[in-house]
Design brief:
This protein is an alpha/beta fold. The protein has helices at 24-32, 49-54, 104-114, 136-151, 164-173, 190-201, 211-215, 219-223, 307-322, 330-352; strands at residues 6-9, 36-40, 58-60, 73-75, 90-93, 117-120, 182-185, 206-209, 227-230, 256-259, 284-288, 294-297. The protein folds into two domains: 6-132 and 307-352, Rossmann fold (3-Layer(aba) Sandwich), CATH 3.40.50; 136-305, NAD(P)-binding Rossmann-like Domain (Rossmann fold, 3-Layer(aba) Sandwich). Residues 349-353 have low confidence and may be disordered. It binds nicotinamide-adenine-dinucleotide. Nicotinamide-adenine-dinucleotide is lined by residues 134-136, 139, 185-186, 188-192, 209-211, 214, 231-234, 238, 260-262, 299-303.
């Protein structure tokens, strides 16, 4: 019988990253399923290291994963540190490296040099291609909440991670009349669902559009809303939802956009009226000074603002699949195949050197 899979949850390098891919309660379930789990100590993780130790995880110093046995699965969320160069483990994380993103050639090269592999969580899917674990719901929730708070003049940067209860108190406590008119595009997806629920919490009724409503886009109707939450997942070109020329429209009431999609670097950017994401220090950017002024909120790490809730939801989705690691489970086989497709140029270069 093969040895039990070894899972090693690493400390995240970005100090604003407070989320964890596995929360202590799910670590306990994985231990019960026979996995061995090592958790790196991490000063910023929203879940204390002691809670992982209490359920039976081994604890290791932050950043010590390069010393883990070669057959260990290293689990994380975001970018790896620059050292060591050659990566010899199988890393489960969001690598953002399969679509020629900035830095992806170098990262794939490091894996090719070390003989490791990426099991990219973005490509952990069922047989129909549906994602099995995602942070979308809470991204949409926070994005819509920030848009409402900004519209009410109640957003106080810099933003800091907090809890849903705190956010909901703000949403409930800053209401005035009348509530803004709000449109959610991509309303049926994960982010869109979260966005609609945040708007409901804030007492804002939303118009909900998904694919059928944008097929023949009624831009005048779109611009007639005061608040727009964009939550689409676009894989091929679609007509932009708001164009530069729309900013001067005398019928525009739109004054706040929360662009959860944040596709600023993509050729399929649906809101080409702005080009840069915003930050926790400056979450709001002015797009147009024409009346009414139009502001955009475009944070690409929204779920990190609710690290406990978003981690708990993600971990609940991911845990059953981690329990199947090392058992030639179809979802992990697909994930690995996707890595080899993306890595082919780096791997074949290695063969020729
Ligand atoms: N900013 C962040 O922190 C953050 C976090 C997570 C996800 N995201 C992004 O949010 C987006 C949505 O992610 P998701 O997980 O909700 O995806 P999803 O697949 O669950 O939902 C996307 C929805 O958009 C709809 N859609 C696609 N094209 C459309 C169009 N042209 N018009 C109208 N609706 C359209 C789909 O039908 C679907 O209902 C993605 O781009 C994702 O990368 C951002």
């Amino acid at each position: 019988m093969p040895d039990a899979p070894q899972l090693w949850m690493r400390h995240e390098t970005r100090d604003s990253e407070h989320r964890a891919p596995i929360v202590p309660a799910d670590a306990a379930r994985l231990l019960a399923a026979g996995l061995t789990i090592t958790v790196e100590d991490s000063p910023q993780r929203a879940f204390p290291t002691a809670d992982y130790a209490a359920v039976g995880c081994r604890i290791a110093p932050a950043g010590s994963w390069p010393e883990a046995p070669a057959d260990t699965y290293i689990l994380g969320l975001k970018e790896l540190p620059g050292q060591p160069w050659a990566l010899r483990h199988r890393h489960i994380f969001f690598s953002h490296s399969f679509q020629h993103q900035h830095g992806s050639r170098e990262l794939l090269r490091r894996f090719a040099d070390g003989g490791g592999a990426i099991l990219d969580l973005e490509y952990l899917t069922d047989a129909e291609g549906r994602r099995l674990a995602a942070f979308g719901y809470w991204a949409g929730y926070v994005g819509a909440a920030l848009a409402v708070l900004h519209r009410r003049g109640a957003l106080r940067p810099p933003l800091r991670p907090g809890s849903r209860a705190e956010l909901d108190r703000l949403l409930a406590g800053t209401g005035g009349s009348p509530a803004p008119t709000a449109l959610v595009i991509g309303a049926l997806g994960r982010c869109g669902t979260g966005a609609r629920e945040a708007l409901t919490t804030a007492g804002v009724r939303s118009t909900d559009w998904d694919l059928p409503q944008t097929r023949h886009l009624d831009r005048a109707a779109l611009l007639d809303h005061e608040l727009l939450v964009n939550a689409v997942l676009v894989r091929e070109p679609v007509p932009p939802f708001v164009r530069v020329e729309d900013l001067a429209s005398p019928h525009r009431r739109l004054s706040v956009i929360a662009d959860v999609t944040c596709d600023v670097a993509s050729p399929h950017h649906t809101l080409p009226v702005y080009r840069h994401t915003t930050t926790w220090h400056e979450p709001v950017a002015a797009v147009s000074g024409a009346e009414p002024p139009l502001d955009v909120i475009a944070l690409d790490n929204l779920p990190s603002l609710l690290p406990r809730e978003s981690s708990a939801a993600f971990s609940a989705d991911l845990m059953p699949h981690l329990a199947e690691l090392g058992r030639s489970a179809a979802q992990w086989d697909r994930c690995l195949r996707r890595y080899h497709e993306a890595a082919m140029p780096s791997e074949s270069k290695e063969r020729h050197e």
